[in-house]
Amino acid sequence: MRAVVQRVREAAVHVDGAVVGAESAGSVSLDEWIASHRAFYAGCRDEVALLLGEPGWRLTDAEPMVVTSFQLVSCCDNPER
Question: Which residue range(s) make up the domain with 64?
Answer without folding.
Answer: 2-74
